Amino acid sequence: MDQTPQPPKPTSAVPAAPAAPAEPVSTPTIIASMLRAHPKTSDLIFSPGRAPQVETGGQLIQLKIAGVGVLGSEDTARIAADLIGRNAHALEKLKLEGSCDISYSLPKLSRFRVNIFTQRGSCAIVMRVIASNVPDFGSLHLPSQLTEAAELRPGIVLVTGPTGSGKSSTLAALVNKINEERACHIITIEDPIEFLHSH
């Protein structure tokens, strides 16, 4: 039997095709994950150089979401584009003025008041969580004297206060009271629309 070593057979090594880049996690999936992470979240924040953050109890918390790490400027730009969608007015305002306000909703989950702004040449986003139910005077523990504002005919009522003090909720409760007690047309001027009132 011949024990002469045989030369190795030539192989045609074909380089493996580079792996396709993973699809980014969809914006609705990210938002839903952020809401589930902390039940008392008041704001969602997207900023380049940081992971998605939530504000709860006055504290900012960076979240670990599967498939989402530290955000780059391209990530926040993509999320902003998803939120704006086909809203040409908001897109134009963002380009000309550097910021825009819109509303955004995830059906059966939540509505948001969204501020998109540019800083250092990239987009950042703050999304304020809007309660699903229209608040009333009882749930807000408002003083009973304030109900008189819903009964005024002529004049003007000013509701003022710092961010997060309850201006939008108070106004929604006033509109809701008028809506429940009087047969009349109610016109609101809002940018963006926050609470949705039924007929």
- In total, the number of strands is 6
Reported for the largest beta sheet, the result is: 6 strands, antiparallel
Oligomer: single chain
The averaged pLDDT comes out at 85
Q: What percent of residues are in strands?
A: 15-25%
Count of DSSP H/I helices: 5
Helix content: 25-40%
Radius of gyration: 26 Å
Query: Which blocks of ≥5 consecutive residues have pLDDT under 50?
Result: none
H and E order: HEEEHHEEEHH
Q: Which sequence of strands runs across the widest sheet?
A: 3-2-1-6-5-4
- The best one-word shape is elongated
- What is the distance, rounded to the nearest whole angstrom, between the alpha carbons of the first and last residues? 97 Å
Structural class: alpha+beta
Description:
The chain has 199 residues and is α+β, with helices and mostly antiparallel strands. The protein is 26% helix and 20% strand. It is built from 5 helices and 6 strands, in the order H-E-E-E-H-H-E-E-E-H-H. Strands 3-2-1-6-5-4 form a 6-stranded antiparallel beta sheet. It is elongated, with a radius of gyration of 26 Å. The mean pLDDT is 85.
What descriptive keywords fit this protein?
single chain, 199 residues, alpha+beta, 5 helices, elongated
Task: Give the helix/strand layout.
Elements lengths: L26 H11 L5 E4 L6 E4 L2 E4 L10 H12 L3 H10 L1 E8 L3 E10 L2 E9 L6 H4 L26 H15 L18
Antiparallel strand pairs: 1-2, 1-6, 2-3, 4-5, 5-6
